[in-house]
Automatic annotation (TrEMBL):
Biological-process GO terms, alphabetical: regulation of DNA-templated transcription
Classification lineage: Bacteria, Pseudomonadati, Pseudomonadota, Alphaproteobacteria, Sphingomonadales
Protein name in the entry: Antitoxin of toxin-antitoxin stability system
Organism: Sphingopyxis granuli
Annotated region described as Disordered, given as residue ranges: 62-92
Stored SUPFAM superfamilies: Ribbon-helix-helix
Length: 117
């Protein structure tokens, strides 16, 4: 096994360590995985550029809960009734579209086939 030495600025190193921790792996394992993907990838077609690093999705257990960004401090607070008269509800909001329930329950009807497209 060979060792590789690279030079990184402090911020890149910090962010890379955080990302590796989110993925549940070490920074060395993250770099090794990236280099292995790069080496195993088929050669690109002539004239086609590749992204510098393939996108890697974090596993579900490392993703964490969804977060809501707080409103800026200078934002005006919402006012009661501000949307009155600007929103509406369709007349048929409480009715299922034709064939939807048939498709949901697996019934083979003409209307249900429109939901299988």
């Amino acid at each position: 096994m060979k060792n590789v030495t690279i030079a990184l600025d402090d911020e890149t190193h910090r962010r890379a360590r955080i990302r590796a921790a989110e993925l549940g792996m070490s920074l060395s394992a993250l770099v090794k995985d990236y280099l292995r993907q790069l080496a195993d990838a088929p050669p690109p077609e002539a004239g086609v550029r590749e992204m510098s690093m393939p996108f890697t999705v974090a596993p579900a257990y490392a993703a964490g809960p969804p977060t809501i960004k707080p409103a800026p401090r200078n934002a005006k607070p919402r006012q009661p009734g501000a949307l009155r008269g600007k929103t509406g509800v369709a007349n048929d909001f409480d009715e299922w579209p034709e064939g939807f329930l048939d498709a949901l329950y697996g019934e083979d009807t003409e209307a249900a086939r429109n939901w299988y497209k």
